Amino acid sequence: MCRAVRRRGRGLFLGRVLLALALDPAGAGRSAVADGRFVDCGRARGYAQSRLSELRELAEYARARGLRVTWADQARGG
Fold first, then answer.
1. 3-state secondary structure string, the chain?
2. In this structure, is residue 27 part of a structural domain?
3. pTM score, two decimals?
4. What is the extent of the structural domain holding 51?
């Protein structure tokens, strides 16, 4: 991979984490729902923000050390 491509991708993961935090800063959570045999257990208030904060720490750690973060996008089958 050439240097120009590597530079362009630097901070991409951190940018996505910060964008996600900005889009849903309150994190209201979601209550549990049961429909027949299907049960969605919901999500506690602040859960997403807690996980995103952990990811932000990881991204900042990697960025400070020049490390690359890769991830799979499960919504796209990655």
1. CCHHHHHHHCCHHHHHHHHHHHHCCCCCCECCEEECCEEECCECCCHHHHHHHHHHHHHHHHHHHCCCCCCCCHHHCC
2. yes
3. 0.67
4. 3-68
Total domains in the fold of the chain: 1
Residue for token pair 């800063």: 25
In-domain check, residue 55: yes
pLDDT per residue, tens digit, the chain (78 aa), is: 333 334 445 678 899 999 998 987 777 778 888 888 888 888 888 888 999 999 999 999 999 999 988 877 666 654
The reply to whether 77 falls in a domain is no
